[in-house]
């Protein structure tokens, strides 16, 4: 399944956000893959972040990651950098952006 998400980085934390993503812990990358993700790309336009994620089952992936200490630490780090508008992990597979058009 393919999921698209929209988040926002705090304007004063853009550089820190990008630095963090150059340093994603190997343990977290491994856990994301083990939970069923095959790819995850994030684009930035100003403070808007657009994610496209491919995985077997988004809700299951979130549930598996939710309990892992490495993910809990990562989410705490992201909470300092993001403008929290929406709790994607609470919404599970329903969190994705709706598809408007596809070629």
Outline of the structure:
This protein has 5 helices and 4 strands.
Percent range of helical residues = 40-55%
Give the mean pLDDT: 91
- Terminus-to-terminus distance: 16 Å
Whole-number count of domains: 1
How would the global form be characterised? Answer: globular
What is the correct CATH architecture?
Answer: 2-Layer Sandwich
Report the CATH C-level class: Alpha Beta
SSE inventory with pairings:
Layout: E1 2-9, H1 14-22, H2 26-34, E2 37-45, E3 48-55, H3 58-66, H4 69-81, E4 82-83, H5 88-91
Antiparallel strand pairs: 1-3, 1-4, 2-3
3D architecture notes:
- With 103 residues, this protein is of the alpha+beta class.
- It has one domain (2-86): Alpha-Beta Plaits.
- Helix content is 43%, strand content 26%.
- It has five helices and four strands.
- Strands 2-3-1-4 form a four-stranded antiparallel beta sheet.
- Strand 2 (37-45) and strand 3 form a beta hairpin.
- The longest helix has 13 residues, at 69-81.
- The radius of gyration is 13 Å and the shape is globular.
